[in-house]
Structure prediction request, 280 residues.
Amino acid sequence: MLLVVLGTSIVWAAPAAPAAAATVVTPTSVTTPNSSWRLWTVQTPRGKFTANVVAINLQNPKLHIYTLTGSASDCTNNCPVAPLHKYVQRVQGFAGINGSYFCPYDYAACAGQYGSYYWMVYNSVRHTFVNAFQNKFNKGPLVAFDTDNHWHFWREAKDWPGLAAFEAQYQTKLVAEISNGPALIVNRQVVVKSSELDTKQRTAKGNRSGLGFKGKNVYLIVASNATVLDLAAVMDYFKMEYAINLDGGGSSALYYLGKYRVGPGRNIPNALLFSENLVQ
Prediction:
């Protein structure tokens, strides 16, 4: 209490209340004219999940799409890896997501093949393919982007016609390409089956990264506390027309407008990136 003397009177006054602590509100969405990020909570037939979703307008005339690899060519061990933001910075980008499954350095079972991966990925800056030979046997999906930012989908990557045939058929140039598996959504239908997944994909709950397409947009999605089948349900919730699974768990990472929205996760050997800058 505070003693206040007024003339010959004595008044006891309560002390002023302390200033309220500032409330820090973490934003759950960011929107720009041609892209956005939002943290969703979605209810699916397989349960409730949170999902970080980046939506990118493929009709943005300033948009450039890149896939980058740590190595310029096939690599079987001690392959170059880096955090996702390093790949984003390489193309002066605004968004990126981790790429294909690979053998991480923290897996004892990967001794002798650290950083290597099976999937074919195009290096947009070096104009080289990694794992082109192995792609002949790849039954997982493949997605390619051309100079007009149109996307092209193959249910089985082994049906990829090759660079020259692709560019001749579509009268365009390839700018980015990535493969991984399994396919989640094809022609608006969930196609992934439990029988094609390994035990971890079927049962392990964790971050699950995926790439989806709907209308004029591409979507980079990371669902939390999810299996691969759960990720397919999340993609279906968003009414994706096509969607593929990417690497998940400790490799999941999602970057948007200078911040990790998920991750950073472990260092990775390849990534899918979006920029408004043309990088040579």
User: Anything to note?
Assistant: Residues 1-15 have pLDDT under 50 and may be disordered. Residues 228-237 form the longest helix (10 residues).
